[in-house]
Design a protein that fits this description.
Distance between the termini: 34 Å
Number of strands: 0
Largest sheet: none
Shape: elongated
Strand content: under 5%
Structural class: mainly alpha
Helix content: over 70%
Length: 114
């Protein structure tokens, strides 16, 4: 696997799959193992807790992305914000920018020998 785009695609596919699995396990645990009593005080907080956990997983993904953005010197704007809002779109846009920079910008910047 010498192609860095392919290896990063595999890396983020595994990261996204793992985080979605973790999110599903969390939602199952949250719905199945709630306290035996239905507390009216806790009921309004469940959606906020779910949103906070999803946001935490998005921030974990942002940490991975920011490392790879600096490592591969990808010139991107708004990828971090997009990833915080919606995880797969941010990863897709990062990989798209990396592909564009690796394939097209590198060809443009190479000098043409006449």
């Amino acid at each position: 696997m010498k192609d860095r785009i392919f290896s990063l695609t595999c890396k983020y596919a595994l990261i996204l799959a793992g985080l979605y699995f973790l999110s599903d396990v969390y939602s199952i645990v949250l719905t199945e193992f709630k306290p035996g009593y239905d507390s009216l005080e806790l009921a309004p907080w469940w959606p906020i807790i779910n949103f906070a956990f999803s946001l935490l997983l998005n921030v974990v993904t942002v940490l991975f992305l920011s490392y790879d953005i600096r490592r591969h010197d990808v010139k991107t704007k708004y990828v971090i914000v997009t990833t915080i809002l919606f995880r797969p779109v941010g990863v897709f846009v990062f990989l798209l920018f990396l592909f564009y920079q690796d394939r097209f910008v590198a060809q443009i910047e190479e000098p043409i020998d006449d």
